[in-house]
From TrEMBL:
Protein origin, superkingdom: Eukaryota
Organism: Rosa chinensis
Protein name: Putative leucine-rich repeat domain, L domain-containing protein
InterPro entries tied to this protein: At1g61320/At1g61330-like, LRR_dom_sf
Length: 249
C-alpha cells in the first residue's frame, strides 16, 4: 500500500468516528500522520508503531486544535517527533486530559521527556535515549523506565512525583547526575537494576541512594547486586514493610 493510499484510509477512518486506531507501518521511507487524527474527538485508543513524523505545534499544546480529549490509551513506537523544544510539553493535561495509559518506545527527536497528564495510571518508557525525565501524577500507579538513559552527562536528571505509585521498575539505565524522587508510600513492588561503572561521581552516588530511598516502604524488592555495591556503602537503608527481597546479578 502506498503512503498516499494509507493516508486516505486513515482519514476515512477518522471521518467514521473511529474509537480505536492501531497503525503499523513497515516502510522505511516514513509516513506523515494526517492532521485530522489530532482532531478526532472520538478516539479513545491510539497505537502507532511506525516511522511516523509527529509535528508538535504550539496550537496543539494549547489545546486549541486538539481533538484528542477523549483519548485514554496512547502507545507510540518509532515515532519521529519534530521540534524537540516543544515536545517536552507534549504529554500534559491540556493535550491529553483523559489519558490513563501511556507507552513510549524507541522514539526519536525527544531528549527531555515531561509527563504530567492528570489521569495517568500507567506509564512505560523504553529505549528512548533521553537525558531528562520529569514525571508527576497523583493517580499514577505503575511506572516502568528501561533502556532510556545511556550517556548521563552533568545536565542529566530525573524527577518523579507519584504518591500513589504501586509498581516501580527502573531497568538498565545509567545513573543520572540528579535524582529527585519523592517517596512512594503506597509502593507494592520495586525493581531496580542500573548500569553502575566504578568511577561514579559523588553526585551520581547520591542519585543512586535516592533511587533506593524512594522504595524504602516497598513490600517486594528486586535489586541488582551491582547497584547495591554502589548505593549501600554510602548510607544505611531501612525497609519497614519489606516482605520479599531478591538480589539479581
Amino acid at each position: 500500500m502506498s503512503s498516499s493510499c494509507l493516508h486516505d484510509c486513515v482519514s476515512w477512518l477518522v471521518n467514521q468516528k473511529v474509537e480505536e486506531l492501531v497503525l503499523k507501518v513497515g516502510s522505511s521511507g516514513g509516513f506523515d500522520l494526517p492532521l485530522c487524527v489530532f482532531q478526532c474527538d472520538s478516539l479513545r485508543c491510539l497505537k502507532l508503531d511506525a516511522h511516523i513524523s509527529w509535528f508538535v505545534s504550539p496550537s496543539f499544546l494549547s489545546g486549541a486544535t486538539n481533538g484528542l480529549g477523549s483519548l485514554h490509551t496512547l502507545s507510540l513506537a518509532h515515532v519521529d517527533f519534530l521540534f524537540n523544544c516543544l515536545c517536552k510539553d507534549l504529554f500534559t493535561g491540556s493535550s491529553f486530559p483523559c489519558l490513563e495509559s501511556l507507552t513510549i518506545q524507541s522514539c526519536n527527536g525527544m531528549t527531555h521527556l515531561k509527563i504530567s497528564c492528570p489521569n495517568l495510571k500507567v506509564v512505560h518508557v523504553n529505549s528512548m535515549n533521553i537525558n531528562r525525565l520529569d514525571i508527576s501524577g497523583m493517580r499514577l500507579e505503575s511506572l516502568r523506565v528501561s533502556f532510556s538513559f545511556f550517556r548521563c552527562d552533568s545536565e542529566s536528571w530525573v524527577s518523579v512525583f507519584a504518591p500513589n505509585l504501586k509498581t516501580f521498575s527502573w531497568l538498565a539505565n545509567c545513573i543520572t547526575e540528579k535524582c529527585l524522587i519523592h517517596g512512594f508510600p503506597a509502593l507494592k513492588t520495586s525493581h531496580i537494576n542500573c548500569r553502575c561503572p566504578d568511577d561514579l561521581s559523588v553526585a551520581k552516588i547520591h542519585s543512586a541512594v535516592n533511587l533506593v530511598w524512594a522504595s524504602s516502604q516497598v513490600q517486594s524488592l528486586v535489586i541488582s547486586r551491582d547497584f547495591l555495591r554502589v548505593s549501600c556503602p554510602s548510607v544505611s537503608f531501612f525497609f519497614f514493610f519489606l516482605e520479599n527481597l531478591s538480589v539479581s546479578v
